[in-house]
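tool=predict chain=A
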Amino acid sequence: MSWGIVYYAFPVLNPQITAATGWSAGATTAAFSLGLVVSALAGIRVGRILDRRGPRAVMTAGSVLGVISLLIVAAAPNVPLFIAGWMLAGLAMAATFYQPAFAALTRWWAPDHVRALTVVTLAGGLASTVFAPLTATLADHLTWRHTYLVLAAVLAAVTIPAHALALRAPWPDAPTSPTHTAEGADGVGRSRPFLLLAAAFTLSGFAMYAVVVALVPLLLERGYTTSQAAWALGIGGAGQTLGRTLYAALARRTTATARTTTLIALGGFTTAAFAAVPGPYALIIAVSIVAGMVRGNLTLLQATAITDRWGTTQYGRLSGLLAAPATTAAALAPFAGATLAVPLDGYTPLFLLLATFSAAASLIAPWTATGGLRRRSPQP
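tool=predict ok
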């Protein structure tokens, strides 16, 4: 629900926002991107807090901030207040999205964390499947402001009590790791494999998130309706759920480096496929499902990248450091995509350009091997 309401509603509503307010698509997308930048920067601090105290207070406060931020966005009379609302939403994202959830799961369920991560991301993968079409349906009957008010009420009614009441298990002490004993978290964060891994995830994340936000305008440009575009975006979430059921088997049979290289390359292939396939609609849906499968596996790949190479000690801090540049790139992707589409003369050339970013990331990925604690993920 946090992903579906705070993130996936925006790509669906943005055309209506710009039409109703007269604000430029560049301005509204920049506000959304700025929120993601705030999320990336705040995520490092959130990771440290999670390592020490656990997820309950962090995720509950994040849900409260998410509701408040959407109320501000819905009521914003001008672009500056709209931007302020999304900056606050960035804090909510840092405290409620995958990074804090992954830190909690990795500590609570280690060493069977792959199973726990898969279960939660199976649900998370349905965020776009449920909320992109739901948002489009609400927008057919309500203004964009009233749509956000309804979504904020749903977010408040479900996620605040869920986090406050369910995340009450004792927070285990952090396990020790030979790698961390020798190098320390700061040493790992400055190591060549870590920096290259961050670079690969940054390039891949930029491409993947630009695709998510640009898919709706791509299909609108090709003459499809808003509802059809929203369903194409949403069905990708079903693909994510399907893909994540396969990750545990993939992790058992491949090294961390091999699956990093393969999945990032497949992400570039599906992005190029969107550019190459103008129709029919059923074929676009098929591409969206496959792209979602890859995206779903990339989420679990990043969630397990730290433990596969350096163990679970200070997972929150290291995952925050690893995610920060990738999340920043993902934050800039919607604005950059909307901006680049103009000189590129449309969204089809944009998707081809984005595919080259993934290709570059796949060339970096083979150099991220560490010879660390585990070459393969533990049996889930």
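Residues 276 and 348 are 8 Å apart (CA to CA). The chain is about 85% helix and 0% strand.
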